[in-house]
């Protein structure tokens, strides 16, 4: 296991000498310690990334197709080490191993391959301007990009960040979450093995308040990309304004509505709503945590959802047959339990769960609340745990208004067989992704991101390229133009 | 010695017709010989496809394209994975493929390995990357509608490739067609079918479903004509002579209005100003016309040199041509191999015409050696625009050097051609460079370079050098059919 700071393709001890303890949330035991990066380490990394970005450097003078080639090689190496990486994710995050292997690792490999294909297809334009000029645009890399990623999908988030950035020719200083640095550090080793020049990717495990803060305030970082909570996202945007107006993209929280009409395929809707909330122990920005069900099918929907929740098997994520692992740490555990208590106090009906899981400390029973009213905390705040809220609605205009009555706007689901309802609702919802008769249907070709306080900018698909590109227009005087 | 060992490796499989991932004999039972142009000797015999075989192939390709088939239902990214795997396999077998290509076409081995094979691999990888990035649009239409476009594959594509870059032209055709989800019936040139047939084996190994790619070695007037006029083929793509390109377009019109893209000949102007870097210009002009023994549609076969440097340019070009090493493709010192079998006499004929028309033969002009189809690097000066050697595509190692005085004059003379494939200009002056490149009626214009091609850039001709573009994002358009879908909305909002 790699446990140091990765700068300039070399492993370093932290400047401060401090280390971060890394835990296995299933056992709550210490897995290892890794070097803790702080602002001095960030300075070192930025210097390395800046040098790698200089005009004439190997990275700047490389064919775009060769950048793609390196990303493809990295995908090959992740594929080679798939078992190891899936095990690290399961150990470090409490993710169910088979899910880590088949979902997280598959998405990781596909993301790298997808962006490897884009590298030499990033086109500027030639433009017919007024006057005797020849004008074209160059789509240049922005420069040194700071990237701060969360603990819920550590490896997948790592490549969602580095792949488009590198594809466009940037250099990167990336800080994995302090809870989950291990897969990122293994990736650093693979990046070196793949042949990326030194300084192109630098990996700095550290805390948000120190290393993360240093990144968002740094005067020589040209762009910061953050995935995490809305609260911290606001700090990052502030910091960018206070420092050098670095470009900012944010992927933040969600309180995502999942709207189920009476004319849907009921069993399928129950199942999709269930997995849409409980996936990854509920620790997803996309969690469909407000399930709006049309009145005629409400009771039946609740009954079937509770049955599904009760059938989930909690346990050691490395073992087959386990559906749900532990929450990531005590802090998250406490927050989820506090919100569950508020649900009980505020008068929602606790249908099942609501208590810690049988085993050691960090497990929480799959929990379902019905008769939830929109003003309750569990209906407004992001829980980030295995807690499903089911509300009742009567009319289409009512549910659209209620679904949109939130500062968030990341994703939404609609279950109906009626084409008009589907198109009307999907057009009306203030959400970056709307799923019709499905949930969590994600693919790397498709843009991902939020309206309102769920973030700004888009990741994945061709759209991500815009966020990692700086446009330069070049205008050349010519003696006589022709169309 | 090398040739003998290779002959033993040519099994029955890579000399037959490839349909539905299976090797088959021709329906007629006919075979045709394939020659080594460096020695004139026969390498092997290959099954000869004709109309009946084309019918079988189209049937297989149509089935592979039907709604609900494995190919139609596959994730786009998975089509990309298959192309990427094919690129890996070509890379794995690149020395073998370069050897077969040299043997079959007379191309010198080292350039074949470093240019043709690299070009082939890069093309396949480039289009592998595009497969899941072919986007339609959603459109704010007038009225209460939700409208979007789908970029669908066209269907069964007939592809006819030439003998000058057999393997690379195969990749140029397959890459975009498969990235977009089409199925293919491809006919390699009868002079050079071997590397294309070996690719068929790699296509099967890569895991493409049966019927997606079918390879039919055969002759133009039979198999090629059957493809161009087939009622069950949705599009035909052809690279070759302008003369045959016209027949293909005619056949498309007569049959089912299949979509047509053509990459045809060129008589490409290379304009050298007095302020050019002279050494660079001489060398680039030399390689620009003599590369691949002059057998390039991009050959810079009309070199226009500004008067002040004309004599010096001719002197240096002749000296360079005399230094060009002609020999066996497998000799590492060789710069120029033989012509392809049936074209040597045509080139020699053109040289005689040039002499008769009064151009000055500066060097070369004759066939070389007793075996094989070699021709001396040949330079003509004092060429007038009305001479046949200045107007017609020679497709051999023959350089024409003309004199010009003014920029307006040379623009007019350069454009005075039915062709319009490429052009080049050598100058240090930014205004001259911009003016010439804007004015040239050519699909590609090079400034201070020649033959600078790469898979990311669209390539194709103005006028009778063809229509449509290959390579780059533009290549995808030619292999897509656009469908607009409009859905009534109860109430639209922006």
Structural commentary:
Chain B: Residues 23-485 form the Aldehyde dehydrogenase domain. Chain B: One of its GO terms (molecular function) is oxidoreductase activity, acting on the aldehyde or oxo group of donors, NAD or NADP as acceptor. Chain B: Keywords: NAD, Oxidoreductase. Chain B: It comes from Astatotilapia calliptera. The complex is a heterodimer of chains A (483) and B (494). In chain A, 39% of the residues lie in helices and 20% in strands. With 483 residues, chain A is α/β, with parallel strands linked by helices. In chain A, the strands form five sheets. Chain A has a seven-stranded mixed beta sheet, sandwiched between helices. In chain A, β15 (367-370), α13 and β16 form a beta-alpha-beta unit. The longest helix of chain A is centred in the N-terminal third of the chain and has 22 residues, at 97-118. The N and C termini of chain A lie far apart (61 Å). Helix content of chain B is 39%, strand content 20%. Chain B is globular, with a radius of gyration of 23 Å. By secondary structure, chain B is an alpha/beta fold. The chains are: A alpha/beta (483), B alpha/beta (494). The A-B interface holds A 64-65, 68-69, 72, 110, 113-114, 116-121, 123, 134, 419-420, 423-424, 427-428, 444-445, 462, 476, 478-482 and B 76-77, 80-81, 84, 122, 125-126, 128-133, 135, 146, 430-431, 434-435, 438-439, 455-456, 473, 487, 489-493.
Could you give a quick summary of the protein structure above?
Chain B: This is Aldehyde dehydrogenase domain-containing protein. The complex is a heterodimer of chains A (483) and B (494). Chain A has 483 residues and is α/β, with parallel strands linked by helices.
Based on the model shown, name its key terms.
heterodimer, A: 483 residues, alpha/beta, 7-stranded mixed sheet, 6-stranded mixed sheet, 39% helix, B: alpha/beta, 17 helices, 22 strands, globular
């Amino acid at each position: 296991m790699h446990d140091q700071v990765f700068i300039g393709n070399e492993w370093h001890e932290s400047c401060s000498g401090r280390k971060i303890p890394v835990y296995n949330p299933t056992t709550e035991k210490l897995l290892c310690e890794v070097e803790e990066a702080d602002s001095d380490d960030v300075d070192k990394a930025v210097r390395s990334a800046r040098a790698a970005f200089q005009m004439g450097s190997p990275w700047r003078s490389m064919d775009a197709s060769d950048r793609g080639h390196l990303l493809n090689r990295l995908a090959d190496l992740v594929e080679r080490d798939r078992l190891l990486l899936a095990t690290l994710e399961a150990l470090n995050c409490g993710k169910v191993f088979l899910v880590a292997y088949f979902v997280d690792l598959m998405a990781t490999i596909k993301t790298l391959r997808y962006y490897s294909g884009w590298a030499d297809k990033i086109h500027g334009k030639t433009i017919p301007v007024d006057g005797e000029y020849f004008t074209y645009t160059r789509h240049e890399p922005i420069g040194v990009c700071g990237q701060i990623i969360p603990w819920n999908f550590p490896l997948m988030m790592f490549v969602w960040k580095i792949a488009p950035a590198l594809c466009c020719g940037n250099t990167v200083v990336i800080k994995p979450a302090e809870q989950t640095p291990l897969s990122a550090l293994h990736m650093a080793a693979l990046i070196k093995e793949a042949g990326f020049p030194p300084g192109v990717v630098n990996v700095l495990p550290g805390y948000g308040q120190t290393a993360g803060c240093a990144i968002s305030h740094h005067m020589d970082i040209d762009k910061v990309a953050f995935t995490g909570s809305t609260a911290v996202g606001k700090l990052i945007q502030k910091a960018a304004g206070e420092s050098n107006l670095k470009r900012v993209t944010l992927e933040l929280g969600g309180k995502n509505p999942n709207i189920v009409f009476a004319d849907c395929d009921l069993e399928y809707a129950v199942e999709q709503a269930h997995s849409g909330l409980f996936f990854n122990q509920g620790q997803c920005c996309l969690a469909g945590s407000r399930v709006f069900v049309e009145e005629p099918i409400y009771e039946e929907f609740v009954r079937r959802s509770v049955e599904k929740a009760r059938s989930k098997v909690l346990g050691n994520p490395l073992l087959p047959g386990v559906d749900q692992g532990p929450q990531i740490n005590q802090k998250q555990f406490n927050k989820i339990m506090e919100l569950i208590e508020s649900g009980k106090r505020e008068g929602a009906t606790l249908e099942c769960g609501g208590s810690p899981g049988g085993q050691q400390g960090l497990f929480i029973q799959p929990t379902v609340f019905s008769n939830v009213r929109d003003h309750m905390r569990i209906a407004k705040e992001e829980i980030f745990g295995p807690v499903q809220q089911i509300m009742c609605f009567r009319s289409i205009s009512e549910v659209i208004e209620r679904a949109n009555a939130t500062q968030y706007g990341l994703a939404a689901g609609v279950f109906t067989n009626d084409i008009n309802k589907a198109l009307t609702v999907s057009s009306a919802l203030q959400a970056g992704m709307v799923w019709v008769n499905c949930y969590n249907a994600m693919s790397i070709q498709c843009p991902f991101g939020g309206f309102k306080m769920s973030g700004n900018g888009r990741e994945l698909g061709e759209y991500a390229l815009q966020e990692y590109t700086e446009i330069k227009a070049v205008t050349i005087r010519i003696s006589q133009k022709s169309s | 010695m090398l040739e003998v060992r290779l002959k033993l490796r040519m099994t029955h499989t890579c000399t037959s017709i490839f349909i539905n991932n299976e090797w088959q004999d021709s329906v007629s039972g006919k075979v045709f010989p394939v020659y080594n142009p460096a020695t004139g000797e026969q390498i092997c015999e290959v099954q000869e496809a004709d109309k009946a075989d084309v019918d079988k192939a189209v049937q297989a390709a149509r089935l592979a394209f039907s709604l609900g088939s494995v190919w139609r239902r596959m994730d786009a990214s998975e089509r990309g994975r298959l192309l990427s795997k094919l690129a890996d396999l070509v890379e794995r077998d690149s020395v073998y493929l370069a050897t077969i290509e040299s043997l079959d076409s007379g191309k010198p081995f080292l350039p074949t390995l470093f240019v043709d094979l690299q070009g082939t691999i890069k093309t396949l990888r480039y289009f592998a990357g595009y497969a899941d990035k072919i986007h339609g649009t959603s459109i704010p239409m007038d009225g209460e509608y939700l409208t979007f476009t789908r970029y669908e594959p066209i269907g069964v594509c007939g592809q006819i490739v030439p003998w000058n870059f057999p393997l690379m032209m195969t990749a140029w055709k397959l890459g975009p067609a498969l990235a977009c989800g089409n199925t293919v019936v491809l006919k390699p040139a009868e002079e050079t079918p071997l590397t294309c047939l070996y690719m068929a084996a790699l296509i099967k190994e890569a895991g493409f479903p049966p019927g997606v790619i079918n390879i039919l070695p055969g002759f133009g007037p039979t198999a090629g004509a059957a493809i161009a006029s087939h009622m069950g083929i949705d599009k035909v793509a052809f690279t070759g002579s302008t003369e045959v390109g016209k027949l293909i377009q005619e056949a498309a019109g007569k049959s089912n209005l299949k979509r047509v893209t053509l990459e045809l000949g060129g008589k490409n102007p290379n304009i050298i100003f007095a302020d050019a870097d002279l050494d660079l210009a001489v060398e680039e002009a030399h390689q620009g016309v003599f590369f691949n023994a002059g057998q390039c549609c991009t050959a810079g076969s009309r070199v226009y040199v500004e008067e002040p440097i004309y004599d010096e340019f001719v002197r240096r070009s002749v000296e360079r041509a005399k230094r060009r090493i002609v020999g066996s493709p497998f000799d590492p010192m060789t710069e120029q191999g033989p012509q392809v079998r049936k074209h040597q006499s045509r080139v020699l004929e053109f040289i005689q015409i040039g002499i008769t028309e009064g151009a000055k033969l500066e060097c070369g002009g004759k066939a070389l050696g007793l075996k094989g189809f070699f021709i001396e690097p040949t330079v003509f000066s004092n060429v007038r625009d009305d001479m046949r050697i200045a107007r017609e595509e020679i497709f051999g190692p023959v350089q024409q050097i003309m004199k010009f005085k003014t920029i307006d004059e040379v623009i007019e003379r350069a454009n005075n051609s039915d062709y319009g494939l490429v052009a080049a200009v050598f100058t240090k002056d930014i205004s001259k460079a911009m003016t010439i490149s804007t004015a040239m009626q050519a699909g590609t214009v090079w400034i201070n370079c020649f033959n600078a091609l790469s898979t990311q850039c669209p390539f194709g001709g103005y006028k009778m050098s063809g229509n449509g573009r290959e390579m780059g994002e533009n290549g995808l358009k030619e292999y897509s059919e656009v469908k607009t879908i409009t859905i009534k909305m109860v109430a639209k909002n922006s």
